[in-house]
Amino acid sequence: MIFITHVRMAKGTEHEHISDVKWRDENGKIGSNTVKEMVDLIKKNKVVVNVKDGEKIVPVVVVDDSYLRTKADGKLTNNLLSLPRF
User: Fold this and answer.
1) Which of 18, 69, 76, 86 is a plausible cystine mate for 6, CB 3.0–4.6 Å?
2) Do the beta carbons of residue 68 and residue 56 sit within 8 Å?
3) 3-state SS of 12-79?
4) Contact (CB, 8 A) for 9 and 55
5) Phi and psi torsions of 40, nearest 5°
6) What is the pTM of this model?
7) pLDDT tens digits, residue range 26-60?
8) Residue 68's CB: how many other CB atoms inside 10 A?
């Protein structure tokens, strides 16, 4: 399981403009991937991706086969846009 900690934006401010993500796994390893790479990993069930919102863990899902969103309580949410930029 990994947690997205930062996002990089490209030419816009909405979810579809996130180009890259920085993450940390449960063992403290840090890495980064393009959104396309992360979409492929999630779709192939290679990795479970989340965001921490305080103490709450919010899952990250693929939308329209091309971008990432968080999904809390069954609703798409804006947690990724609240993360620091890198």
Assistant:
1) 86
2) no
3) CCCHHHEEEEEEEECCCCEEEEEHHHHHHHHHCCCCCEEEEECCEEEEEEEECCCEEEEEECCEEECH
4) no
5) -60, -45
6) 0.93
7) 999 999 999 999 999 999 999 999 999 899 999 99
8) 21
